[in-house]
UniProtKB/TrEMBL annotation:
PANTHER family: BILIRUBIN OXIDASE, CUPREDOXIN SUPERFAMILY PROTEIN
Entry-linked InterPro entries: Cu-oxidase-like_N, Cu-oxidase_C, Cu-oxidase_fam, Cupredoxin, TAT_signal
Domain Plastocyanin-like stretches: 54-166, 366-467
One GO molecular-function entry: oxidoreductase activity
Domain of life, source organism: Bacteria
Alphabetic keyword roster: Capsid protein, Virion
Gene3D superfamilies: Cupredoxins - blue copper proteins (2.60.40.420)
Protein name: Spore coat protein A
Protein family per UniProt: Belongs to the multicopper oxidase family.
SUPFAM superfamilies, A to Z: Cupredoxins
């Protein structure tokens, strides 16, 4: 099983409030799995994305308006090489301000998507990503202060893959057998539109505005790459899946049914592991990534293999299905050594700090906010000033409900686990984790926050400044 500190007793209710769809949801495993298109550069290293509303068919026979990067959900996949600067020009044709954050990117502060660094409606701006970091499964998503939950829910999320020579030299599955899987949960109104309980968290607490969903919005329909409980035909061969949980508030415990050989994890949030790790189950919190290989040659042609969610119930207990079609040649392999990952030790840390994530300490219109060390997010507050080039030990504590904690810029290791470099760690209620954080690359102001997007919008975020 999975060794990371996780929310092992998690139930749907403790993560948020389930919103039931009024629309008719499809039979599971009838819609084919889509794969987001890879974005073509306008010239080498330069990309352009227009953020706009578009009507798409998610539920068969109904139209859903998404807010999409280039009008699609998930957005197009960007592929970059390590150390080659990628410039993405975003034009905002949505009627609201937006912010783009490259999650997991080691990015200068002015391009990191600080939550108040808005791109106004009708405006455009360039984000410059040096990507001086190992091959990894990154993703980009909206990060507008107070509105990240509703804006990501409407579709503003996409993959950004970083590749490098070390990874290319490995005989991992590739081409058609390397597939990104973005898992999200959504609920739908009767007309097929996305149902989100409050579009404006800043109104919470005012008359007639419900606060019932501030613990997190849970949908009853599971989408993979934007399709409801999809089905994918596979050869009886190895496949590499880059699994991302882009849900607002839902965490998953994934398993295969029938179990077969399970998942061989080759990478985590920030890139390849030193060596592969076998899992029967993968617990994946919001924003975490698991890069895995599944070997379908263990099944026979004709067999159906369902990706299930052991934390779900009814519809949310199912994610997608693979149908094994035929035996086929496979020259891929998972080597015993994958990448150089130098383990940090506590003695590398030059400072220790503690951050408690809980509900309380601050109020807004009579609503109790979600806070970091009792303080709600503010543009001026600074909770830590680590020095560039150092490692610090940060003790992260979760109270009230589970919280997945994400630190911008600085990758970290969780001592005693085999998950390599991470940027997001899941904490169960009452849990604490010690993480060894390496501050490298850039000086400036960044945020750490809970990646339950409703908690984040309700102020569970803080600034740190690398000096
Ligand atoms: Cu994925 Cu600060 O976010
Ligand atoms: Cu939280």
């Amino acid at each position: 099983g999975c060794a990371s500190g996780g929310a092992n007793t998690e139930t749907e209710s403790s993560a948020g409030t389930l919103l039931r769809s009024a629309a008719k949801l499809p039979e599971p495993f009838t819609v084919p799995l889509p794969v987001p298109p890879v974005l073509r550069p306008v010239r080498p290293g330069h990309y352009e994305i227009t953020q706009r509303a578009a009507e798409v068919e998610i539920l068969p026979g109904l139209r859903t308006t998404v807010w999409g990067y280039d009008g699609i959900f998930p957005g197009p996949t960007i592929e970059s090489r390590r150390g080659e600067t990628t410039v993405v020009r975003h034009r905002n044709e949505l009627g609201v301000p937006v912010v783009v954050h490259l999650h997991g990117g080691r990015t200068p502060p002015e391009h990191d998507g600080y939550p108040l660094d808005l791109v106004a409606p009708g405006a455009a701006r360039e984000y410059v990503y040096p990507l001086d970091q190992p091959a990894a499964t990154l993703w980009y998503h909206d990060h507008r202060a107070d509105f990240t939950g509703p804006q990501v829910y409407r579709g503003l999320a996409g993959f950004h893959l970083v590749r490098d020579d070390e990874e290319d030299a490995l005989p991992l599955p590739r081409g058609e057998r390397e597939v990104p899987l973005m898992i999200t949960d959504r609920s739908f109104a009767a007309d097929g539109s996305f149902a989100y309980p409050s579009v404006d968290p800043s109104l919470l607490g005012q008359p007639g505005v419900t606060s019932e969903f501030v613990s997190g919005v849970l949908g009853d329909c599971i989408l993979v790459n934007g399709a409801p409980w999809p089905v994918m035909e596979v050869d009886a061969a190895r496949y590499r899946f880059r699994i991302l949980n882009a849900s607002n508030a839902r965490r998953y415990r994934l398993a295969l049914d029938p179990p077969g050989p399970g998942f061989t994890q080759i990478g985590g949030d920030q890139g390849l592991l030193a060596a592969p790790v076998r899992h029967e189950r993968l617990q994946i919190a919001q924003a975490e990534r698991y890069d895995v290989v599944i070997d379908f040659s263990a099944y026979s042609p004709g067999q159906e293999v369902t990706l299930v969610n052991r934390l779900g119930d009814g519809g949310t207990a199912r994610v997608m299905r693979f149908v094994v079609t035929r035996r086929a040649p496979d020259d891929s392999a998972v080597p015993d050594r994958l990448a150089d990952v130098r383990p940090l030790s506590r003695s590398d840390a030059v400072a220790e700090r503690e951050f408690t994530f809980r509900r309380g300490g601050a109020e807004h219109h009579g609503m109790t906010l979600w806070t970091v060390n009792g303080m709600p997010f503010s543009a001026d507050g600074v909770v830590a000033e680590p020095a560039l080039g150092t490692v610090e030990l940060w003790r992260l504590r979760a109270q009230n409900v589970p919280h997945p904690i994400h630190i911008h810029l600085a990758p970290f290791q969780v001592p005693g686990t085999a998950h390599g470099w991470k940027d997001t760690v899941d904490l169960g209620n009452g849990d604490q984790a010690e993480v060894l954080v390496r501050f490298e690359g850039y000086r400036g102001k960044y945020v750490l926050h809970c990646h339950n997007l409703e908690h984040e919008d309700m102020m569970m975020m803080a600034n740190f400044v690398v000096r």
